[in-house]
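Appendix B. Raw example, untouched.
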Amino acid sequence: MAEVQVQEKGAKGGKVRSKKQSTRVDMTPMVDLGFLLITFFMFTTTFSKPNVMDLGLPAKPKENTPKPPPTEIKLSNSISLLLGKDNKVFWHQEDNTSLNDQNLNETSFDREGIRKIIEQAKSRAADRTKFTVIIKPTDDAVYKNFVDILDEMAITKSEQYGVTDVKPWEKAIYDRKVGNSGTPAAATK
């Protein structure tokens, strides 16, 4: 606390001046106020909420219901997209016997890339109402690429799409195309 000391009158009868002392400010209440403000803002601040993407997944079938037969999608009504490394997308409309290095095509995520290819494949489809996009992320793909391809599904109005694993025959051709050896020893070096 700040204190001021006053001296009594002296014997000379002159003016009595108080002795000037330096004032001292007690900072304890200010520190308390600071902690109260910090606590207030910590409790009232909303932290950043995680961005969540809503995926409409089918309901889990009951145990006693018979399993439906596997759906066969015609190649003329579908396109397969392999999400690869370095933000590249590989696509094809072939089966396991006819897919090779030449018809596993490569494109990018820009407007002239995958969007144009999906629209062209949809326009060439035998039945546009059943056109299906099959998304197959590889181990080299990043999450951002998956989100980008789902955005492209909304932009191109492709309502029927599925996410599945890369088939072994596609993986072998993909590895040859990007130069992966496919062996764990070479991947660690």
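End of appendix B.
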